[in-house]
Design a protein that fits this description.
This protein is α/β, with parallel strands linked by helices. The chain folds into two domains: 184 residues, Pyruvate-ferredoxin oxidoreductase, PFOR, domain III (Pyruvate-ferredoxin Oxidoreductase, domain 3, 3-Layer(aba) Sandwich); 72 residues, Alpha-Beta Plaits (2-Layer Sandwich), CATH 3.30.70.20. It has nine helices and ten strands. It has a six-stranded mixed sheet with strand order 2-3-1-4-5-6, sandwiched between helices. Strands 7-10 form a two-stranded antiparallel sheet. Helix 1 packs across helix 4, helix 1 crosses helix 5 and helix 4 packs parallel to helix 6. The protein binds iron/sulfur cluster (2 copies). One iron/sulfur cluster binds next to helix 8.
C-alpha cells in the first residue's frame, strides 16, 4: 500500500487534491481510499487529508501515521509545531513542499531530513488562474507524479472531481492543462514501489463505548480566543490602498473573525496578530482598496525574495 498525507490550510484544496489522487489511483486499477480531517477552525486553519492506494483491499482507516509521501500545500505549515508535518516520516518518505525555494533551502530552514522536493505551485496558480487558492488540481498532479501514477488517469480524475464541485468545462480543461504542466515540472524523487513497507504493520483498535459527556468538548475559560494568534496562519495579508477606500465599512462587516476595526476617518485597521489571511475582505471590497500581499515576515521565509 502507498500512503499519502496532505497538509494544507482550509480553503487551499488539500481535501480535493487527496480525492483527485485517490480517483487517479482508482482509475489506474488500484484499490483506493481518501479522507480529510478538519479541526474546529475554519478557512486558513491547518487541515489534513489522507489517500491510500494499493493492489490489495485496504483495511486500514483513519489518519496516516506512516506516510510514503507528505504533500505540504503551504510552507508556513512547516513552522507550526501543532501541525506535525514530520510525524511518522522515515528516510524513505518523500516530502513535497509547495515553495519556489530549492529543496536544500527548505531542508536548512525547516531542519527536516529525508527526501525533499519543492515546486512553486502557488506561483503557477497565480500565473495561470490569477488566484493563489486554486491549487487543488495542481497539488493532486504533483502528488500523482511523485506517487508514480500516469497522466491519463490523472487527467480523468481532475475532470471527475472538479465536475463534482460544479466547475464549468472550460475551467476544468484549463485546470487539466496547468496540472499536467505541474506534473511534468516537479522534480522527481526516487519512490518505493507499491508494496507494504516494513513499518506499516496494521493493528486494529476496537473502540469501547464512552459516555457522551466524556466525549463532548468543554471550554472551561471564557473570552480566551484572543490568546490564539491566528496571524501565523497567513501567507498573504490584506493591505489597504488608502486613496481607493471610500469608507463603506463592507470589509468590517464581512471579516469572519472581527479583526477589522474602523478608525475615525472610516478607514479599516487590520489586527494582524489575528487576521488569518482568508482574503474575504479583499474579495468583498467594492473599490479594490484592499490587496493581497505575500507575507514579508514568517511566510516570506518560504518564498523567493
Ligand atoms: S470595503 Fe474597501 S472601500 Fe469599503 S471600507 Fe473596506 S477597504 Fe474601504
Ligand atoms: S482581515 Fe480580511 S483576510 Fe484577515 S481575517 Fe478578516 S477578512 Fe480575512
Amino acid at each position: 500500500m502507498y500512503a499519502v498525507r496532505f497538509h494544507g490550510r482550509g480553503g487551499q484544496g488539500a481535501k480535493t487534491a487527496s480525492r483527485i489522487l485517490g480517483t487517479a489511483a482508482f482509475l489506474s486499477g488500484y484499490q483506493a481510499q481518501d479522507s480529510p480531517i478538519y479541526g474546529a477552525e475554519r478557512r486558513g486553519a491547518p487541515v489534513a487529508a489522507f489517500t491510500r492506494f494499493g493492489l490489495e483491499p485496504i483495511r486500514e482507516r483513519g489518519a496516516i501515521v506512516h506516510p510514503d509521501l507528505v504533500v505540504v500545500a503551504d510552507a508556513s505549515l512547516l513552522e507550526d509545531p501543532s501541525v506535525r508535518v514530520s510525524d511518522g516520516m522515515t528516510d524513505r518518505t518523500i516530502l513535497f513542499v509547495n515553495s519556489p525555494l530549492p529543496a536544500e533551502e527548505i531542508r536548512a530552514r525547516s531542519r527536516l531530513t529525508g527526501r525533499i522536493t519543492t515546486f512553486g505551485v502557488t506561483e503557477i496558480a497565480l500565473e495561470h488562474f490569477g488566484r493563489r487558492d486554486a491549487i487543488s488540481a495542481l497539488l493532486g498532479a504533483v502528488a500523482a507524479r511523485l506517487a508514480g501514477l500516469r497522466q491519463e488517469p490523472l487527467r480523468q480524475a481532475i475532470a471527475r472531481e472538479l465536475e463534482n464541485l460544479g466547475l464549468a468545462p472550460p475551467v476544468i480543461a484549463h485546470n487539466q492543462t496547468v496540472a499536467l504542466h505541474c506534473y511534468e515540472s516537479v522534480q522527481m524523487v526516487e519512490c518505493e514501489s507499491v508494496t507494504a513497507p516494513a513499518h506499516a504493520v496494521t493493528t486494529f483498535h476496537a473502540p469501547v463505548y464512552e459516555s457522551p459527556s466524556r466525549g463532548t468538548a468543554r471550554i472551561n475559560a471564557s473570552g480566551n480566543s484572543v490568546l490564539r494568534e491566528t496571524g501565523g496562519w497567513r501567507t498573504f495579508r490584506p493591505v489597504l490602498v488608502a486613496d481607493k477606500c471610500n469608507g463603506c465599512w463592507l470589509c468590517f462587516v464581512y471579516c469572519p473573525d472581527g479583526v477589522i476595526s474602523m478608525n475615525k476617518d472610516d478607514r479599516p485597521v487590520v489586527d494582524y496578530d489575528h487576521c488569518k489571511g482568508c482574503q474575504i475582505c479583499v474579495h468583498e471590497c467594492p473599490t479594490h482598496a484592499l490587496v493581497a500581499e505575500r507575507e514579508q515576515e514568517g511566510g516570506v521565509a518560504w518564498t523567493a525574495r
